[in-house]
Amino acid sequence: MRQATVYIDREALQYNLNRVKQLAPTAKIVSMVKANAYGHGVKDCLAALQDSDAFGVACLQEALEIRELGFQQPITLIEGIFSADEMQIAIDHEIECLVHHQQQLDWLRAHKDAYIAKNLKVWVKLNSGMNRLGFKVTEIIDVIHTLKAEGFTCVLVMHFANADADNHPLNDQQRAQFLQVKEACAPIMASCCNSAAIYKWPELNFDFVRPGIMLYGASPFADKTIHDLDLKPVMTFTAEIIALNTIQAGESVGYGSTFVADNDIELAIVSIGYGDGYPRAFPKQNYVSINGQQAPLIGRVAMDMIAIDTTGLNVQIGAKVELWGKTRLVDDVAETNGTIGYELLCRLSARPVRKTN
Ligand SMILES: *Cc1c(COP(=O)(O)O)cnc(C)c1O
């Protein structure tokens, strides 16, 4: 059988969740499991994240999947609902909504009694300068005061645009606006920390933190590795050597014959390609890991196969190749691909076989 495997280490997931607890001991943890748990598979991750206080997802479908799997924790829709008809479904399944524009407030008010009767919180989003979602600082104080007067329990929410950057001027503006609104609406619960912010600003952890990438053992910072952050990689993405070849100087490999050997080399063909979600374009030289040794990719990534230079590595057909995981970190592969670990994890296809411990 073709081997292209996504292995999920649930102990690593629990370890990383415990890291969040150490870093934010007084906050409740909303584990972000949107996009199929950042590509890890919600079904394989939720049990290991059982000790979370809540889950965060991007849409109703993702929330309903959690309920279908039998998990009863609070769930927050971090972008709220997308149409009026979703409100009743959300209430029926005890799914909490965020509100970031006036229409969502109208949809919420149309179901006010049912929403409040289920003790669901309303997450009210401040736009403090990221300029994606939310009410501006000039509007939100009224919005919150009115919601509170109507009997809703509110959480003030904000998202940093540059939590991964040191000394970005927008960080100070966003923090100041958040604290200003929090003060003006006191008492109110508050939440503004993703993974990067959890590490950087413990004083902003407040009532709920919203870790995502750190749970999965990838780094939110370009200049810090998971070892610096004491996190463990959760996903190991592997394939197998399916053919061996030797070529002479001047011969080429793969589509477009983009790689031409300078010397005689030994190469191996590995059962992985962009059809599995492995990236095709590598602006920088990428590597895979075999038995702890690095082997460079050569030629183009195809839909189902890649070629690697195994000169001197003495590898066999059937040998396991780590595309990313505990030895070759996803963040390092992402760097050679000109992207971030988040994207590589999320964009895996359905083809690789899924396994867990
Ligand atoms: C995805 C998301 C997070 C988690 O961000 P990470 O950088 O993965 O920790 C937190 N809050 C919101 C609103 C999000 O959309």
TrEMBL record:
Recorded GO MF terms: alanine racemase activity; pyridoxal phosphate binding
InterPro entries linked to this entry: Ala_racemase, Ala_racemase/Decarboxylase_C, Ala_racemase_C, Ala_racemase_N, PLP-binding_barrel
Coiled-coil ranges per UniProt: none
Catalytic reactions of this protein: L-alanine = D-alanine
Stated family: Belongs to the alanine racemase family.
Function: Catalyzes the interconversion of L-alanine and D-alanine. May also act on other amino acids.
Protein name: Alanine racemase
Source organism (scientific name): Acinetobacter celticus
